[in-house]
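Provenance and format

Records in this collection were gathered into a single text stream. Each protein contributes a sequence line and a token line. The two records reproduced below are adjacent in the stream.
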Amino acid sequence: MMATRCSTYPIVQGAEGGTCSSFPQFPIIAFGTGSKWKGQDVTDYVIQAIETGFSHLDTAQWYKTEDSVGRAIHDSALDRDDLYITTKWSGLTSIPEAIQNSLNQLGLKQVDLYLIHNPAFIKDIAKDWAEFEKIKEAGLSKSIGVSNFNLAKLQELVKIAKVKPAVNQILFHPYNHAENKELLEFSAKHGIVTEAYSSLQPITRYPGGPVDGPVNAAAKRLNATPTQILLSWVRSKGVAIVTTSSSKEHLQEYLAVADLPSLTEDEIVAIDEAGAKGPPNKYWSNLYRNRYILAAGLFVQLAGFLFVTMRS
């Protein structure tokens, strides 16, 4: 089974300001090989993701995983058209050298999407984007885009671009939704797909926060997991998803979001409003995350105290 394609995805607009049909076969959820995977051999994990149903693979020059992603692509024995490959220029070399190195590492003649990993790597936005436009023109990437661009940077790029970025991949979750609302609106207006990474931070980094309540309530109604509700909320914003896991069960959990009924408008608003309150203090989040370990430690200390007291 391959991952659900863009034709079933709400509001995903295509490259260069078109509709989904001008950005062919854009899968709405990608398996990412960054963050915790940096510098590791991810071959087996990528193969597992492909076998589970992921068709969109996301890597980058910075991650140093392009070689093992390439091995997984080769070992999968799938037709090239069955996979959608994203990689990124991370400023480690010149742009022309980077795309050639990436293609060599991946074992491909063309990627589907090539991104500027971070605006911090740009020295001259007009010149650097012109290099990206040459990559698209040369057929080395079907589409070009950016990552981690805020509203001001994206506006600056759109003004000078001959070819608009197809995608802006950003950190996006309920706790930073409010600050990114204008960015999402601008992107949608200009036909730029927003793609989210680290959308599960309310669970993984900020547990016990205001978002937990409405997420858990929606999960109970839909007989889903809080993880699935967060990803469903991302989809409700017309945003694509990059996520990862070494667990096949978690990958299946992510893909099953496509089969869930939509969140109600009230549920979406409740998550929005809870997110606008901001994440919990990190101290209390860590305390909440480790509450069972702390409780066990306190129990051992109490038992020790009682033992000493009873013997004296």
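Adjacent record:
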Amino acid sequence: MASSSTAIKPAWTAPQPSLEPNANNKRIALPVRVEPKVFFANERTFLSWLNFTVVLGGLAIGLLNFGDHISRVSAGLFTLTAMLIMLYALYTFQWRANKIRQHMAAPYDDRIGPTILCVLLVLTVAFNFYLRLGT
């Protein structure tokens, strides 16, 4: 029978901080364990963002080839939006990859970036509607 002090912690518990106090209240550095699936999750996220930009670029090419002057302006805005999203995805991928490679315990979530990109996309679509309703 196991005592309560030797309880097994579940695998889903939060990671330990990189510095922990010892018996003398001095902090000692502990290595951060990085599993291989973390690298692949970062790549999957990057590819997901790129997939979205390819779809957005396809929309821009369709507007450019089969539309009038207003569609060409909208195609330019959609292309610019897709390029900004690509740059954001590349920056985020590189930042996370460097942090993972250095075994740093950093917050890898991004709460502001997707919101800004969605607002940019909504503004692009709204400008397209504005141009269409203005004629």
